[in-house]
Design brief:
single chain, 555 residues, Helicase, Ruva Protein, domain 3, 3 domains, 5-stranded mixed beta sheet, 5-stranded parallel beta sheet, 24 helices, 16% strand
Length: 555
């Protein structure tokens, strides 16, 4: 007896089709069940979870030999998401689930999900049974509404009592269903809001294996989760910290406004307790709201990492730009991603948001050096012997550091030497990749005790949105932020006056700046000019941009 259900496998943050085939031989070796198709330990153990879930749900588990194949067989499978399709396929093979399509099986076998894909999208090893196999017709998993059985994907972890537990990567699963023109997905009820974020896909949430069986037998009406209005959710998202709560630090707020307006990396240097961490956490509140595509991509990253909150009351979508703040004891794998089967790291979890590294020199130098390539390419590739995975990593790096290990600003020659030793923990190439260096001074008592009268997030956001609007309308750059402009693009969109060029040349000579720092200054100056509404880059813009090369002046 043969049956087949359709699921997915997670490759990075993308989903690929996976076919779950069940072969039940009642006359074979008694009580033997095998899973093949490069399963990991969690997948191999699924047969025991499925056995208990099936029996505790009131069904009979086959006493003969059961063979489960996960196709394509040359791609590694991981996680408990195959519990549900395995159980459904087994119940179909035993005749305990008879979907509407099975009643019409006498007319011939329908092509499988993998067979229905275009030839260029089919895996090389599909494990598909031959139509001429001398066995009972293969029965496909379906829904209660007599919809084409090839048009739904199933996934979910089973508890021993038959409950269906949430899994990760469901939004990628729903995107796979939409990309291949399928009708929808059958997933754990807690994951239904996440799947409903993808438009044009029916997200059917289930709570138990018995409920799934009733759906497939046509005994229960399928009720897809209501579609989610992503655009409306993004419009109503709000940040939790306002810059008005930060006392003093107006010069730092100005630098942060420029950084947000152009998407520039930023480092704040100052004694402990000056509000550096608070300002970094308030930064997403002045960034432009995420677009629908950005929100979906960030949600896919969090779902693949298993960090997206699940539940019927959850919205299943990341609506606010993320802020990640890893501890300085984090390893390279934790920062950039890794593992035997690669998972996204902190830089990918900060995608379209902010990666905040507090006490930057306390991070191990090898960890900081791993940031150099993602900062330039806005993605990270993790290679393993069996595969290579690419994760998105387009983030703003915001760092903070004290001047010395003691946390105070040096006032004598001894303190300055201690500061130089502390700053030497940062490599020159990494500092070069940070566009803006700004000093956060200690806040006087009068400002701390008085009423806050500083710049608010609303005022800063207005300047940021104005500059970003100008950048989006530039045909020469494709609408990308200034921080990502190439040297050739800067030549076109950042023309300088002769006086401004002279100031820049003088700064290059006196500070000994690198070619990368030269382009960083031009990008920051272009952003300052955008905030001021200036078409060309003038002396004030270049002078202010040069003033933000603080660590170059210290070196």
């Amino acid at each position: 007896m043969l049956a087949r259900a359709h699921s997915y496998l997670l490759h990075g943050i993308d989903a690929l089709p996976c076919e779950v085939e069940i072969d039940v031989d009642l006359h074979g070796e008694k009580n033997r069940a095998d899973v093949v198709g490069l399963p990991d330990t969690a997948v191999k153990e699924s047969i025991e979870r499925v056995r208990s879930a099936v029996m505790n749900s009131g069904y009979t588990f086959p006493a003969g030999r059961v063979l489960i194949n996960l196709a394509p067989a040359d791609v590694r499978k991981e996680g408990p998401l195959y519990d549900l399709p395995i159980a459904v396929g087994m119940l179909i093979a035993m005749g305990m689930i008879t979907p509407p399509s099975a009643k019409r099986a006498g007319s011939g076998r329908s092509p499988s999900f993998v067979e229905s894909l275009p030839s260029d999208l089919r895996p090389e090893t599909s494990g598909t049974m031959s139509p001429a196999a001398p066995m009972a017709p293969v029965v496909e998993a379906a829904t209660a509404l007599e919809i084409d059985p090839r048009r739904y994907l199933l996934a979910g972890e089973l508890a021993l009592d038959g409950r269906v537990r949430p899994i990760r990567g469901v939004i990628a699963m729903a995107a796979l269903a939409r990309a291949h023109g399928l009708a929808g997905v059958i997933v754990p009820r807690e994951n239904a809001p996440e799947a409903a974020v993808v438009p044009g896909v029916d997200a059917i949430g289930v709570a138990t294996l018995t409920e799934v069986a009733a759906l497939l037998n046509g005994q229960l009406e399928a009720r897809p989760h209501p579609a989610v209005d992503v655009a409306e959710m993004l419009r109503t998202a709000e940040a939790s910290i306002d810059f008005a709560d930060v006392r003093g630090q107006e010069s730092v707020k100005r630098a942060i406004t420029i950084a947000a307006a152009g998407g520039h990396n930023l480092i704040m240097l100052g004694p402990a307790g000056t509000g550096k961490t608070m300002m970094a956490r308030a930064l997403p509140g002045i960034l432009p709201p995420m677009t629908t595509d950005e929100a979906l991509e960030v949600t896919r990253v969090y779902s693949a990492a298993g960090m997206l909150p699940t539940g019927p009351d959850q919205i299943g979508l990341v609506t606010v730009r993320p802020v990640r703040s890893p501890h300085h004891t984090a390893s390279s794998a934790a920062i950039v991603g890794g593992g035997m089967i690669p998972r996204p790291g902190e830089i990918s979890l900060a995608h379209h948001g902010v990666l905040f590294l507090d006490e930057l020199p306390e991070f191990p130098r090898p960890v900081l050096e791993t940031l150099r390539q993602p900062l330039e390419e806005h993605c990270v590739s993790i290679a393993r012997a069996h595969s290579s995975v690419k994760f998105p990593a387009s983030f703003m790096l915001v760092a903070a550091m004290n001047p010395t290990p003691k946390g105070d600003m040096p006032v004598d020659e001894f303190g300055r030497r201690a500061m130089d030793r502390y700053l030497s923990r940062l490599s020159g190439p990494l500092v070069d990749r940070i566009d803006i260096h700004v000093e956060a001074h200690a806040v006087p008592f009068k400002q701390l005790s008085g009423e806050p009268r500083g710049t608010t997030s609303a005022q800063m956001r207005e300047s940021v949105l104005k500059a970003r609007h100008v950048q989006r309308l530039r045909p020469q750059t494709g609408g990308v932020p200034n921080a990502r402009l190439s040297g050739k693009q800067l030549d076109k969109v950042a023309p300088m006056s002769d006086e401004a060029r002279t100031v820049l040349a003088q700064a290059m000579a006196e500070l000994g700046l690198s070619a990368r720092a030269y382009d960083k200054i031009r990008r920051v100056a272009r952003t300052i000019a955008d905030i001021d509404g200036s078409e060309s880059v003038g002396v004030p813009h270049v002078a202010e941009a040069v003033s933000y090369r603080l660590l170059d002046r210290k070196s």
